[in-house]
C-alpha cells in the first residue's frame, strides 16, 4: 500500500462535525458586522515580506520567529500573512479607500504563524477582524469594543470573558517611558532571559510581553506606562472609559497590556478568558494611528481588533454554548425500487423549492427499505419520505417520522408540504 500523506503539523482539517460549528459562529459574526454597517474586505493570503516587517515590527515574536517566508520563483521574498491589519492597510492605501475617508471594514480568514502547536495555538489559524479608518475620537474605540461585546452576548458567553484595556499614549510618551523602563530593566539584568536581554537593546517595550514567567514577575514591578501618558491620550482614554461605562461594559485597566505588535498607540485591549488554559486571549486590538502613513499612505487614524476563531469555537465548546450535532438533513427522501428514482428526485426538488431552510437528502444507490432508513437515520433526518411504486402510481408520499413517536401517514403530493410543516 502507498504511504499515506498527512496534514502539516499545526494545520488542521475541519471535518463536517466541526465545520457545522464554524458555520454557526460565522453566521453570527456576519450578522453582527452587518448590524454595525461594516463592509467586508478580502485580501490575498500571500504578501510581500516587507509589508509585515514594516508594520508588525522587526523585533516582535511574529517577525523574528513565526513567519512563513519563502522566495517566489523570481526571487521576491513573500510571506503567508500572519495577521490581517497590515494587509487591510496595504489594500486600503493601494485602492484609495483610506485617505480623507472613513471606513469600517471586516475580514475573516486563515493566518499563518510558525508556533509550537498546542490547544488554542496552531500554525494555520483563523481570525475574524475589524479595521476602521479615518476616525480619531474614542467613540470608535468604544464602538469596536461594543461590537465584540455583542458577539459574546449573542453566543451567551458574556460572563466567561473579561475586557482588559490600557493606553499606550503617544509616540513621545512611549519614548519617555522607554527611558524609565530601560533604567529599571538594566538594574535587574540578571533576571532577564536571552530574548529579553536582546530586546532591552533593540526594543525594550517588547520585554513587557515576554511569555517567560520569571520575566513576567519582574515586569510586574516595572514602572507603569500609564504614568507617562500625555494629556491628549489621557483625555482620549478617559472618554473611552466613560463611553464603556455608559454602555454598561465592564473592564479592567491593565497598565501592563502592551500587545505583541509595534503599530499600536493609545488604546489597546484584550478579551481574556480563564476557561481555555494558557491560550486565554480570545480577541485583541487597539488603535494604530501611525500605521497608514508608515506603510506609505497619507496619515489616517485606525482602530481594529482580531478575534481568534479557533479559541472562540473551543470556548463555545467548553461552555456547551454551541450545537454539537448539526444533522445533514431534515428530510430524507427514499426511492424504493429502481423505477421510482425520477419521481423521488422530483419530490425532493419540489420540497427544496417550497422551503429554502429545509435540508432535503435524496437516497442514491437503491437498496431495500431497511438500508434506506438506516441512511436516513445516519443523516440525522427528522422524517423519511417513503416512495415506492404504489405511492408513485397514486401520486402520494408516505411520511415516516424518525424521532419521537409520531404516526406514519400517507398524503397526496400536493398536500405534502403542508403536512411536513406540521411535522418539522
Ligand atoms: P498570543 O499572545 O496568544 O500569542 P497574539 O498577541 O500573538 O496572541 P494577536 O496577534 O493579537 O495574538 O492575534 C489576535 C488573536 O488571534 C489572539 O488573541 C488569538 O485569539 C488569535 N491567535 C493568535 N495566534 C494564534 C495561533 N497561533 N493559533 C490560534 N489563534 C491565534
Ligand atoms: Mg503570539
Concise structural overview:
This protein is α+β, with helices and mostly antiparallel strands and 424 residues long.
Structure annotation, total helices: 15
Q: Please name the CATH architecture of the largest domain.
A: 2-Layer Sandwich
Give the structural class: alpha+beta
Biggest sheet, spatial arrangement of strands: 1-5-6-11-10-9-7-8
Q: Quick one: CATH class of the largest domain?
A: Alpha Beta
Low-confidence stretches: none
State the CATH topology of the largest domain.
BirA Bifunctional Protein, domain 2
Fraction of residues in helices? Answer: 25-40%
Write down the overall geometry. Answer: elongated
Task: Provide the list of bound ligands, each named once.
Answer: adenosine-5'-triphosphate, magnesium ion
Question: What percentage of amino acids are in beta strands?
Answer: 15-25%
CATH-assigned homologous superfamily of the largest domain: Bira Bifunctional Protein, Domain 2
Biggest sheet features: 8 strands, mixed
Q: Gyration radius, to the nearest Å?
A: 27 Å
Family: Belongs to the class-II aminoacyl-tRNA synthetase family.
Protein name: Histidine--tRNA ligase
GO molecular function, one term: histidine-tRNA ligase activity
Organism: Alteromonas gilva
